[in-house]
Amino acid sequence: MPSEFHIICVSSTHEKLQMAAMIASVAAASGDAVTVFFSMNALTYFVKGHTASAPAEGEFGAMLDKKGVPPFKQLFQQAADLGDAQLLPCSMAMDLLEITDENLDPGFGPATGLTKFLMDAEGGQLLTF
Amino acid sequence: MSETKVIDACNTYCPGPLMELITYMKQAEVGDVLELLSTDQGTASDVPEWVNKIGHEMVGSEKVGDIWHISVRKAK
């Protein structure tokens, strides 16, 4: 039975972005409906021209730079490509960053307000990183 | 005519091997067998779970040296 996962990413640390991306990609590729809402520090990694290198929160984060660990941006992209996950930028964060859809990586959906995201998330599992 | 395609995902960590398998599975024809090579221990237990959920068919799974050989037939 497919489930619904609604993931909120706010942290800039490598560990949290990695875990969120792992859940998004595996769940989406397994037939579950997945939406990922990016706000605060997490959104900045998906602004064109921004570094994709996230700082480690602890010692495990440094190990994630090891060769063979799928980069979190690639996993989010695969979640969208292989499993139709929706990658949604927070409209409030976009306003503060003074950016539009064109400034974000390809594969992102439309700017989304928190109210709409929460309404769509009703009844599904809500995970926050 | 079905064929076996080998996907070498050795030395990548979870969920890299599974994502590799799914990428190729999307491109495969029904009846094709994909053989995934992985050094990630979790992959050996995770791939059958995914196959079971999606409704494909496990053909075999064995560890040769440090490498898991996991074969899956595309069923739909």
What do you see in this structure?
The complex is a heterodimer of chains A (129) and B (76). Chain A is an alpha/beta fold and 129 residues long. Chain A has one domain: 3-Layer(aba) Sandwich (Hypothetical Protein Ychn, Chain: A), CATH 3.40.1260.10. Chain A contains 6 helices and 4 strands. The radius of gyration of chain A is 14 Å and the shape is globular. Chain B has 2 helices and 4 strands. Classes of the chains: A alpha/beta (129), B alpha+beta (76). Chains A and B meet through helix 1 and helix 4 of A and helix 1 and helix 2 of B.
Features:
heterodimer; A: 129 residues; alpha/beta; Hypothetical Protein Ychn, Chain: A; four-stranded parallel beta sheet; 4 strands; 16% strand; B: 76 residues; alpha+beta; Translation Initiation Factor IF3; globular
Described by the principal axes of the CA atoms, the overall outline of chain B is globular
Approximate helicity band of chain A: 40-55%
CATH superfamily of chain A: DsrEFH-like
* CATH fold descriptor of chain B: Translation Initiation Factor IF3
SSE series of chain A: EHEHHHEHHE
Helical percentage of chain B: 25-40%
| CATH architectural grouping of chain B | 2-Layer Sandwich
What letter string, H or E per element, gives the SSE order of chain B? EHEHEE
CATH class of chain B: Alpha Beta
Query: Which pair of protein chains has the largest interface, and what are the residue counts?
Result: A-B, 14 and 14 residues
Instruction: Please state the structural category of chain A.
Output: alpha/beta
Strand content of chain A: 15-25%
